[in-house]
Amino acid sequence: MAIIIRIFKKIFDYSQWLFKQNKKRVLIEIFRHIFPSIQRQYKLDRMVGPVGYWSELQAYQIGTLKKLGLQPHHKLLDIGCGPLQGGIAFINYLNAGNYCGIDIKENSIVEAKRLINKIGLISKKPFLSVSNSFGKDELSKKKFDYIWCSQMLYHLDECLINELFQQISEFLTSQGKFIGDIIGFPNNVKEDSYWDNFSFYKHEVEVLKKMANKYELSLRKLGQIITFGYPAKLDLHTNELLEITRK
Ligand SMILES: C[S@@+](CC[C@H](N)C(=O)[O-])C[C@H]1O[C@@H](n2cnc3c(N)ncnc32)[C@H](O)[C@@H]1O
User: Domain for residue 32, yes or no?
Assistant: First the structure.
């Protein structure tokens, strides 16, 4: 009997510890089975990464681009846009017709279109498309003032980064900026780990600079994403933000 009581006490202590560690996550886990709206948001969160951070990550994304000079008249391409965690804020902020979002996953674009309808943003005329060519096959001849690539560069191997840089050199206006983040230091990322079937790659800034050079592009570090408002609680807050411009 004493053993059973001890086991129950251990389970109780562990649940309390778990709850204290991640109260928000535990509450979402419980309530998503009761409230359909929480379940829908849970599914969206799972499509972009950490659960329970949609609004904070949205604020980080729009805040970062505004700090870096984004204005409503600018044309923006959001590569790996997912179901529009940042996209909704960008579309709201930009003039009609100035937002393009592409993603390799069809279900992300389906969800993105559903959200646009639900929120009533069709009048802002966002362009959304599935693409496995970084927009080469869908957006040829278009030019962008800003190209945003949030939480995606580290899912690309060197061959794909090379393809992306070539495409950036086609898309950027003369004063345009590409902004994206790579894994920074320190980090807890294991190279053989996966998120949603995507591998993780730790890129060296010097190697990326040389790759950018081939396409007459300059690459520089802007600082860790935590300094741009990325939530400190999340593992990837040490990620390094990069800016790529024409030489
Ligand atoms: C971690 S999620 C980030 C989503 C969004 N950028 C954000 O920060 O809210 C990474 C996204 O990149 C997309 N992705 C991965 N590889 C891609 C590729 N080669 N081309 C386009 N999208 C890609 C995934 O489908 C996923 O939606």
Answer: no
Answer whether residue 21 shows pLDDT above 80: no
Distance CA 105, CA 123 (A): 24
d(CA 231, CA 29): 20
Distance, in Å, from the CA atom of 21 to the CA atom of 15, rounded to the nearest integer, reads 10
Which DSSP string do the residues of 120-165 spell out, in sequence order?
A: T-GGG--EEEE-SSTTTTTSTT--EEEEEETT-GGGS-HHHHHHHH
| Number of compact structural domains in the chain | 1
pLDDT of 147-199, one tens digit each?
999 999 999 999 999 999 999 999 999 999 999 999 999 999 987 899 999 99
For position 228, which CATH number holds? 3.40.50.150
Nearest ligand 1 atom to alpha carbon 87:
9
Cα(80) to ligand 1 centroid in Å equals: 3
Cα→Cα distances 86→39, 58, 202, 217, 243, Å: 20, 5, 24, 26, 18
Domain that holds residue 178: 56-246
Task: Name the closest-CA residue to atom 8, ligand 1.
Answer: 150
